[in-house]
Q: What sequence folds into this?
């Protein structure tokens, strides 16, 4: 099954700094999705990047995808305390039937 | 913005009892999912549902579990005879169609088995 592995497991930064999280996966994909989970809450979809895209932006988020290296990164610029959450990548292949397989995530702590 | 809603937010049940977790997916969505997250662990896929039938299920989704879409709006997960290890957050998700589309998650039901 297709699972992403996030790195680092934990990241602690000061407000205003940038946060970079990485994701690696093993087999070919059709898209890769990033989700955020605040403590005790559901997952919130952040951004989806297709396999034929290399970079995508959404507000303060920037996602890159390198299919040759089977890796993706999520950059959050000018971080805020409200960005404190766990972040997950979910690589997806159509032959998976639509399910998402989550890893352990990156736990981001942004200190005011 | 439309959202997935789940009820109840917290359910406490005695071991061996049946429990039904309810979800209202986004109205024009066609694909539905249940996931669970045991405290401190990963979010795990349970089952996917499309066109009124299960399209895929994980090893966790054994005979104790069932899903149903009893009407045009609700999507339910039933656990027939709960065990202590069923204690977890259960998340419902929906997706509008196949292809490059994200899933939209509810805030979950915290199930505590005593």
A:
């Amino acid at each position: 099954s297709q699972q992403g592995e996030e790195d680092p497991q934990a990241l602690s930064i000061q407000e205003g700094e940038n946060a970079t999280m990485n994701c690696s996966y093993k087999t070919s994909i059709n898209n890769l999705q990033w989700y955020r989970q605040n403590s005790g809450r559901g997952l919130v979809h952040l951004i989806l990047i297709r396999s034929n895209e290399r970079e995508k932006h959404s507000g303060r988020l920037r996602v890159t995808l390198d299919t040759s290296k089977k890796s993706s990164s999520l950059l959050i610029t000018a971080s805020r305390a409200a960005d404190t959450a766990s972040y997950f990548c979910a690589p997806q292949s159509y032959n998976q039937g639509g399910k998402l397989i989550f890893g352990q995530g990156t736990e981001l702590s942004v200190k005011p | 913005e439309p959202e997935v809603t789940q009820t109840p937010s917290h359910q406490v049940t005695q071991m061996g009892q049946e429990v039904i977790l309810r979800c209202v997916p986004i109205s024009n969505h066609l694909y539905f999912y249940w996931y669970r997250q045991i405290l401190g662990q990963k979010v795990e896929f349970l089952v996917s549902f499309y066109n009124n039938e299960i399209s895929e299920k994980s090893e966790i989704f054994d005979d104790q579990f069932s899903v149903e879409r009893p009407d045009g709006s609700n999507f339910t997960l039933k656990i027939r005879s709960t065990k202590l290890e069923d204690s977890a957050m259960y998340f419902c998700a929906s997706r509008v169609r196949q292809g490059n589309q994200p899933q939209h998650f509810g805030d979950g039901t915290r199930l505590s088995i005593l």
About this structure: The mean pLDDT of chain B is 94. Chain B touches chain A at residues 4, 31, 33, 35, 42-45, 48, 50, 55-56, 89, 91, 93, 95, 98-108 (CB under 8 Å). The first strand of chain B starts at residue 5 and ends at 7. The two ends of chain B are 37 Å apart (CA to CA).
